[in-house]
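Priority: medium. Attachment 1 of 2:
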């Protein structure tokens, strides 16, 4: 997988050059526990329909005991400018899953906010909720601040099955973002917890 990731990045950048309907956003974190690669690929068929590919690999430096992987493909239909309906299939620790959810998103000149809620099935059904907020205040003519937070939680009756939080704080220069990063992960009512803090670099192709 370590060899394949650069090849994936090159292929996606080539596709981007051939069509403006495609966007590719890789995010690399070098942390105290592990290094993590994440990307979002969006392809817009038209103003209503798009497909998204989300990949996350979190690999420890010393061994593979606590590796995290997540791959999800989502088909989205925009009901309005702010509301979309989504169907997703994917694979993550420990297996395959599918989900149905609705999302609300609003975008301003220097911020974006999205909230989604729905159900995910992997062995059992869970209620999944997520919220993402991004703020890019202007500092100078060519430099912006960058603050991003993402939180996702999966709940069963009486059980906090899975949760994650990601925080990014740094600077933005055109399409390039970089700075400090924090990833938090929890499983099974916080019986298992992992954290990873370090530096990140992100580019919007």
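Attachment 2 of 2:
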């Amino acid at each position: 997988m370590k060899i394949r990731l650069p090849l994936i990045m090159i292929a996606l950048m080539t596709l981007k050059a051939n069509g403006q309907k495609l966007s590719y956003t890789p995010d690399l974190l070098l942390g105290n526990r592990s290094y993590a690669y994440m990307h979002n690929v969006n392809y817009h068929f038209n103003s209503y329909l798009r497909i998204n590919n989300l990949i996350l690999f979190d690999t420890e430096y010393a061994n593979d005991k606590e590796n995290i992987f997540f791959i999800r493909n989502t088909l989205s239909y925009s009901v309005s400018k702010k509301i979309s309906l989504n169907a997703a299939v994917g694979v993550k620790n420990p297996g395959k899953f599918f989900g149905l959810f609705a999302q609300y998103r609003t975008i301003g000149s220097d911020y974006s906010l999205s909230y989604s809620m729905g159900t995910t099935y992997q062995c059992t059904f869970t209620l999944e909720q997520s919220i993402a907020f991004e703020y890019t205040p202007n500092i100078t003519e060519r430099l912006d601040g960058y603050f991003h937070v993402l939180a996702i939680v999966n709940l069963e009756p009486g059980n906090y099955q899975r949760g994650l939080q990601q925080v990014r704080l740094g600077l933005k220069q055109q399409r390039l973002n970089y700075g400090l990063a924090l990833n938090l992960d929890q499983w099974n009512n916080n019986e298992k917890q992992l954290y990873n803090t370090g530096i990140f670099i992100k580019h919007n192709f």
